[in-house]
Amino acid sequence: MVPLSKAQVGQLFQEAQTRLKSGDLTGAERLFQQVHDAAPNAAEPLFHLGRIARMSGDLDRARARFEHAHRAKPAEPAILQALAECQSIMGDTDSAAASHDTLIALQPRHPKPLADKALFLQQQGDFVAAERLFRKALRLSPGNGELYRMWLGGKKLAKGDPTIREMQKLFAYPGLNDAGRIHLGFALAKAMEDSGQFDKVFAYLRRANALQRKAFPYDPAARDAEVAAIMAASDQIGPPQDSDAAPIIVTGMPRSGTTLMEQILAAHDDVVAGGELAIGLKLAYAGFGVPPDIAPLEAIQAEKLTTFADGYARQTAMRVDVQGRRVTDKSIQNHLILGHLHRAMPRASLIVVRRDPRDVALSIYKNYFAGGTHRYSNDLGDIARYIKSFDRIVTFWKARVPVFEISYDALIGAPEEQARALVAAAGLDWQDQCLEFYKRGGAVKTLSIAQVRQPVYQSSGGAWQKYEKDMQPFIDAWDAEQWV
Fold this sequence. Notes:
This protein is mostly helical. The chain folds into three domains: 1-108, Tetratricopeptide repeat domain (Serine Threonine Protein Phosphatase 5, Tetratricopeptide repeat); 136-215, no CATH class; 220-483, P-loop containing nucleotide triphosphate hydrolases (Rossmann fold, 3-Layer(aba) Sandwich). It contains 22 helices and five strands. The chain has helices at 6-22, 25-38, 43-55, 59-72, 77-89, 93-106, 111-124, 127-140, 145-152, 162-172, 178-194, 201-215, 220-232, 258-266, 280-288, 302-319, 338-344, 357-365, 380-398, 408-413, 415-425, 472-478; strands spanning 248-252, 271-273, 326-329, 349-354, 404-407. It has a five-stranded parallel sheet, sandwiched between helices. The longest helix is centred in the last third of the chain and has 19 residues, at 380-398. It is globular and about 75 Å long. The relative contact order is 0.09. The mean pLDDT is 93.
């Protein structure tokens, strides 16, 4: 074969990138492989070959390619970051930690690599080591409100802790930008609650939520129209498609207990936790249309349902080391498409988690969500209306597809009885270890990062009562008849 010129190699590389962006993984892989054959010591084609392998669910091959790319270009942070993520997904926490350490060594004066490893350690349950790194990152970036918020996700502060005074001083600083004040407001609200200063919690929450709502306005009418359009197009389900895909869909409102349910299930030998995969709704809207133009569910052709199921399985394998186990998916937005999930993957288990709406609303309002992801979360009235719309569409799907509902409040009152019912609803035989989920270790990527390291506890029930006066806007909105 005639060797390729430098110009030809460059053209192949550009075409490969174009194919990759368009979703043509096969074509992109073929071209990147040609580039690699022509320039075996170049890191870039190896990096993209690793990305393609991960997108295809071949984690072993992805890791090998990232490792090869790292050897070719050892000081490239993007390669190391991809390698660390792959190692973490595969459960090789020692190697992932080493990759994070190399990233830190490459950028010793930058707080982000320190924060990234600290978050990784929190997810592994090593909160002490994570704290050391967060403190080090704060020394490099002392006015960074986001670092305080991330750190306190796995840390409780006692009344009088000097860190609280540091945060309060920074919060009052006129030069602090809105983004920093949002992060710091949520962090201080948590610190007030953890230290028993309940009368001061909502002062910080109102400020932080108001600033985030200003930055990311919410249109409740658009949400209501989306739900109405899906229901109007889904009165008839249509015949289920033949598919071997059997995910365990665990959905509910944010902060309703979906993480706890997932951890109980993932303690089973035949299950692995996928977390919030955020796959289903994107694939459904891409394949079936976006409301109000979503296709009638019963009229969706078999080929499109197969494409949906195959895409779901492929993207799951990108994110989770499946190894023949069933995967839990606790994506919140799956509640919108329970009928589509059932028709495309009839072996899927559909589980909806319920919780006292007042506790759900409080927990949503006092937790930070990435800007633009849960726009309703910054106003108690909007939260009430959103929960009502959730109830409406779940009730709609329950009348049409097999949905199992479980109450978080019932579970904390009778853990074994409810856990057995949950495991049975997923089509699994009972294993006693499911009640000892907090002992199994492994990464947990959730706002409940500390709670799920503990046994089932009842103290989280009725938490809203500490803030009954502050919660009145939610209670008033919840009682509004037009939203029932």
